[in-house]
Amino acid sequence: MRRKLIVVSNRGPVRVARDGSVHRSSGGLATALRSLLQHQDVTWIASATTEGERALAGETLQQENYRLRLVAHDAQAYDWYYNVVANPMLWFVQHSLWELAYTPKVDAAFHRAWRDGYAAVNEGFARVVLAELEHEPEAAVFFHDYHLYLAPKLVRQGCPDSTLMHFVHVPWPQPDCWRVLPRAMRCAIHEGLIANDVIGFHTERWRSNFLYSTRELLGEDVTQKTVTAPISVNPAEFAELAQSDPVLAAEREIVGKRPEKLVVRVDRTDPSKNIVRGFRAFELYLDAHPEMHRRVRMLALLDPSRQDIPEYAEYLGAIERESRRVNDRFQQDDWTPIELRIEDDFPRSVAAYKQFDVLLVNAIFDGMNLVAKEAPLVNARDGVVVLSENTGAHAELGEWALTVNPFDVEGQGEAIHQALTMDAGERQRRLEAIRTHVRTHDVNEWLDLQLAALNRVATTARR
Questions:
Q1: Coil, strand, or helix at residue 244?
Q2: Could you read off the pLDDT of 15-62 as tens digits, one per residue?
Q3: C-beta separation of 331 from 324 below 8 A
Q4: How far is Cα 286 from Cα 359, in angstroms, rounded to an integer?
Q5: Cα separation of 279 and 336, whole Å?
Q6: What is the DSSP letter of 391?
Q7: Does the fold of domain 235-440 match that of domain 4-232+444-462?
Q8: CATH code given to domain 235-440
Q9: Angle of helix 346-355 versus helix 245-257 axis, rounded to 10
Q10: Backbone angles phi, psi at 386, to 5 degrees
Q11: Domain 4-232+444-462, CATH 3.40.50.2000 — does that match?
Q12: pLDDT at 342 over 80
């Protein structure tokens, strides 16, 4: 059944350049929702963040198979919303990243950023959604992620009969983590979310934590509103991408330089990705196995993330320092144990996916982590996935990965050794099992689960 949907997210499916040219966004959400655009009648509402986008704000832009509305925000309000409240505050709360003896600092400046930034931008989104609902009252609204926790309640107040759904793409922590925020703020977040008819999470673990939080903080039981729907990828798209010219060129370069064994990690330079501990784990592995010197390398392909935010800029510096320290200790002649590339180069990442013997995914916490699903699809070496137990992907793939605790660097080093010495038949069995799972449970299933939940809401309303 084709339905009318209003998708609402901070980042849109395309980026508009200063000259007005339109380029497809590389964001994971845009990629995941591409098939939704093909099969539903979609209006997408997103922030105008470039000069070209701000010039088009307020208009409805007809794209190939959807309509786009860009929301222009006051520059100062958007900076507070994005760089002070959403990132890092909410991101750090939801990924358990704060060092509570020292951070965060909820001072007068943060209160202002919440009121005049996060709340104000959410109000701006809500106004545009309500304007769309005036024209399309039968449309369902599909909110996404931690940038928009307050908007659903505002839309509900303005249009009580609207059908609202919100998908949370990040982990949901237990209620004590939310007590970092003043009561009014943490309650506003939960009240905003439960204004939806359907609230989606990647795993049962995150869904259960949310239910625990709403009971503890609001005294509400919203079990019937929640759904578990693990996001995934499009296997056919990756099969095609793996044979594209840019990927093949990057793969030739990797093969030409690679030693006997290759440990790969592909991440953003985000503190939640646990990159520094990963380098320390690789150091412990090299310490314990001198016979592997010159025979193994870690290839770390890292996309620079949110460098306008001090915590992220500082973490990038820590990544570079740790890589240099390990390399200074172990490098010999033409062998450097860690090859670090900090750039946005997705074709090279896919090429590395094809060549890994070990894929290291040791995130502190992750809502899902699609790298753990993408890389096995195209790998040509029967590679082994070393996977943090705190990723959403572990709930699905843990049976066939080597499980690690993200804080246990010694355990991660031992897992790298176990992966590199695993019997060839066992490596193949595990990789094929992951591939079969991802091909069976692809991104379309993720969408279908949520649309089915919307159908249940609509059916109940008709009764």
A1: coil
A2: 888 777 787 776 677 778 877 888 899 999 999 998 889 988 988 889
A3: no
A4: 17
A5: 13
A6: B
A7: yes
A8: 3.40.50.2000
A9: 50
A10: -100, 115
A11: yes
A12: yes
